[in-house]
Amino acid sequence: MWDYLFFIVLPYVAATLFIVVSIYRYVTDRFSYSSLSSQLLESDELFYGVVPWHIGIIGALTGHLIGFLFPKEVLWFNGVPVRLYILETTGLLFGLLALIGIVALMWRRIRMPRIRAVTSTIDTVVLVLLFVQVVLGVYTALFYRWGSSWYAASAVPYLRSLFLFQPDVEMIKPLPHIVKTHIINAFVLIAIFPFSRLVHMVSLPIEYLWRPYQVVIWNWDRKKIRGQYSRSKAQVKEESGESSIGTASISR
Ligand code: HEM
Question: Residue 218: helix, strand or coil by DSSP?
């Protein structure tokens, strides 16, 4: 019963929310697709949290994706012990980096009143869920060896069965509770994704790669304006009139 709810109903509810709400939010409130950066309020401590967090979590999730896409190749790769140790250690290091990053980010939000003031309930929920997810992941990597192999052999067939709309939970039933909680928490994160600032993940401005250049054309006399700070304000006013500051028009 619980397995059915958590590993069949929950993932489909999460995926539906993810797709429908993300599209709805994009169509109705496109400018809310943002990480709502707090860098302007404080940047130094942010750097020491955000950099390890992103390197760690992107590395760990890339590992999950490689295992999902190429399970047979991962099992083949792990057939030689030294390669297995390298893969596991790399995954663990990414996990630890993500852990350091998220602890630093949480600490910054708790400690700084200015950052606390701009933290909403959903921000707190997301931070706590991500923290729990990383702790469970690192715990799994440390205490249920060798995760990269059994992930490919039992978790991936389950995940693929979901994608094929033929859900089969048999392979994950025997997994330890910690691992099952890691999987359930992943679905919860997917479900709240479109309601939170996590949506910035899908708003990379990749159109910058092909959009036309911006051409900036000044519509006032640059030679006259350039030297204005070496002259008095009154002189500038006299020379070029009140409207001398000018504007720039941008055309594509
Ligand atoms: C929001 C989604 C998820 C996040 C953020 C996440 C994060 C992490 C992190 C940070 C680690 C530790 C570093 C590592 O060993 O790679 C980890 C490990 C692991 N995760 Fe996830 N995870 C997610 C979803 C899942 C799902 C859906 C599964 C399985 C169906 C899964 C299975 C595992 C396993 C088996 C490990 C241990 C890997 C090892 O020992 O090498 N994760 N996860």
Answer: strand
